[in-house]
Amino acid sequence: MSLDEAISAIEAAKTMDELRSCLHRIVQNFGFSGFTFIDAGRPELDVPYYTGTHPPAWERTYLQNDFVHFDPALARVRRTNTPFHWGDLKLPEKIGRKRPPALKMMDAAKEHGFKEGFVVPFHYRDRLGGIHSSSTVFFWEDEPHWFQKLFAHHRHELHLIMIYWVQRAMDLVNRDVRNAPALLQPSDGSALVQLTPVKRRSWPGPPAARRSRIRRRSWGFRRKPSKASSSRRCASSMHRTRPTAWPRASRSA
């Protein structure tokens, strides 16, 4: 498939499903096994929007291990516009027996058969002027030396293809927003992402409270309660009891 044919196929896609299938055919023509497109502009989210043709087993592993918070490729995407591959990443060194999370993520990718990955960052504005960042990775399962030849000769071509693909995706999403009821179009542009299916996990205990605890641990501090809130809690404890632990729930991808 030539570059002109690839771009024409992208511009002819009428739905996101067609656009996803179109990109899958294009990257397979280059030798890749599949791709993942993920929202890189919301690092606080446990499960940002993503789509692609990655294997389901890899998707489960990525979600269950919270690799989105430790993915070294996503960290680099947020500060560059230049495509790169996994071999360009500077990974932390292993100290003792404990492996850094970034190393665990890359080792897990190898266990799933991925020997290299071509990553295309993209930063753009939506129709309301909101700034978005995304990362697209093409998975390589063949011999690494073949990937090096491909990267040397076709990285600019793949970058150009992704520019057209992301633009077409934004056009399709904006079309769906305009056709949606007015209540689904908030002024902050969040409907641009909410109209697409987002996969979520069930968390044990109250989700909001658990997320708050995770943030405080990751930030390295605990919020000191005020005197007013402490007195309210003491008063309320006289009228009701609090369970010692929340019932456990199974985690699902």
Give the topology, please.
Layout: H1 3-12, H2 16-30, E1 34-39, E2 50-52, H3 56-64, H4 72-77, E3 84-85, H5 101-111, E4 116-125, E5 131-140, H6 144-179, H7 191-194, H8 207-219, H9 227-237
Antiparallel strand pairs: 1-2, 1-5, 3-4, 4-5
Folded structure, characterized:
With 253 residues, this protein is of the alpha+beta class. It has a single domain (3-194), classed as Transcription factor LuxR-like, autoinducer-binding domain (Beta-Lactamase, 2-Layer Sandwich). The protein is built from nine helices and five strands; from the N terminus they run H-H-E-E-H-H-E-H-E-E-H-H-H-H. Strand 4 (116-125) and strand 5 (131-140) form a beta hairpin. The radius of gyration is 22 Å and the shape is globular. It starts with a helix and ends in a 16-residue tail after the last helix.
Key terms for this structure?
253 residues; alpha+beta; Beta-Lactamase; five-stranded antiparallel sheet; 9 helices; 5 strands; 45% helix; 12% strand; globular; disordered C terminus
What is the CATH T-level topology?
Beta-Lactamase
- One letter per element, helices H and strands E, the order comes to HHEEHHEHEEHHHH
Tally of contiguous helical segments: 9
Q: CATH homologous superfamily, by name?
A: Transcription factor LuxR-like, autoinducer-binding domain
Which structural class should the secondary elements be placed in? Answer: alpha+beta
Helix content: 40-55%
Low-confidence stretches: 180-206, 218-223, 235-253
Mean pLDDT: 77
Fraction of residues in β-strands: 5-15%
Measure the end-to-end span. 35 Å
By CATH reckoning, the class would read Alpha Beta
Strand order of the biggest β-sheet: 2-1-5-4-3
- CATH architecture verdict: 2-Layer Sandwich
- For the secondary structure, the number of strands is 5
**Radius of gyration over C-alpha positions, nearest whole angstrom:** 22 Å
Total discrete domains = 1
